[in-house]
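pinned: reference chain
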Amino acid sequence: YASIFSSGQEDETRTHQTDEEAFTENYGWYSVIYNLANGDILKFDQVLNLSVDECFNFIAYQKDLTRLENK
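pinned: its structure tokens
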């Protein structure tokens, strides 16, 4: 949890990464769970009780739907 308690200076070893790459590296699966729970920490357990297939199908559907809507 260094980012919570740091002095605010960025880690020099990560300057080659985009903000998106650094975010993904820091949070990985947590971002997926967060999105599936609509940011509601009280729903994390519900998401974690779903199968991987259910989660990936839903994410794939959302991605395709967003792509269609943005055309």
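why pinned: The CA atoms of residues 23 and 31 lie 9 Å apart. The mean pLDDT is 86.
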